Amino acid sequence: MINNLEALVPELNEFSVFSNLAKNQILDLCTGGEIIFSNHRDVIFKFGFTADYFGIVLSGAYKLSKPSPLGDDVIVHFSTPGDVIAAFIMAQAKPMYPVSATAMGPSRFLKLPRSIYIEKWKNQPELIFKIQNLLSTRMSLLQDQMVMLKAPLNQKVASLLLILLEKSPAEKGLELPLPLTRKEIADTLGASVESVIRIMSEWSKLGIIQTNDQYIRVVKPEKVIEFLKESYVEMTEKVT
């Protein structure tokens, strides 16, 4: 259990789900909580396993993925600080995790027992509304990815980089908030690793991006935005 939950309250209060809540309310909602310190690629829960807990990303990031019919993993979302993971399935009679959650670099996760969701969380309308807003944002990102399905790969990569850049804290500037391999980019976009490597290598040579230990820095965001604008122009022309 968390030895000093009170010390965590200011950090939690910065997240939208706990904003405007009093200290005692946050402590009550986090009863029985435990901080999980994850190394890169540590799994905090697996697809198809019994869901005994949910939680909140405190720092770092976790990729949410599920197996495809072909047996490989498809990345459906990158959860960053403030994201609530696996909350709504807690209300099911026998919940099973619909995705696997894997750490992207050193990360921290506040693990909360299912019992506290049943006892406290689901009876808080404002709290449920905030979680719904987080899920709505996640669904909007998935819809954006669907719109980009027929776009050229360089424009899909541009879209992904800009989405992740929006999640990056101010102190990181133009560096993405999580380490990404070329395979993880390919798994997210449903593309071949070789194709992604070719695009990223070209962008590195052109000085559009820089990579270091799997961290990506967008040096020329205006160029990435240009790639994305091209896809919307092309799609608009096809519709009209």
What does this structure look like?
The chain is of the alpha+beta class. The chain contains eight helices and ten strands. The protein has helices at about 5-15, 25-30, 115-120, 125-145, 155-165, 180-190, 195-205, 220-240; strands at about 35-40, 45, 55-60, 60-65, 75-80, 85, 100-105, 105-115, 210, 215-220.
What's the arrangement of secondary structure elements?
Blueprint (H helix, E strand, L loop, with lengths): L4 H9 L9 H7 L4 E5 L4 E3 L7 E7 L2 E6 L5 E7 L4 E2 L14 E4 L3 E7 H6 L5 H23 L5 H15 L14 H8 L3 H13 L3 E4 L2 E4 L2 H19 L1
Antiparallel strand pairs: 1-8, 2-7, 3-6, 3-8, 4-5, 4-7, 9-10
Helix pairs in contact: 5-8, 6-7
In summary, what is this structure?
Helix content is 42%, strand content 20%.
How widely separated are the two ends? 59 Å
Percentage of residues in DSSP E strands: 15-25%
In the predicted model, the low-confidence regions spanning at least 5 consecutive residues are 235-240
Q: Major β-sheet, in short?
A: 4 strands, antiparallel
Order of helices and strands: HHEEEEEEEEHHHHHEEH
Could you tell me the mean pLDDT? 85
The general outline is globular
DSSP, total strands: 10
The percentage helix is: 40-55%
Count of alpha/pi helices = 8
Widest β-sheet, arrangement of strands? 1-8-3-6
Gyration radius (Cα, Å) is: 19 Å
Query: SS-based structural class?
Result: alpha+beta
Features:
single chain, 240 residues, alpha+beta, 4-stranded antiparallel β-sheet, 10 strands, globular
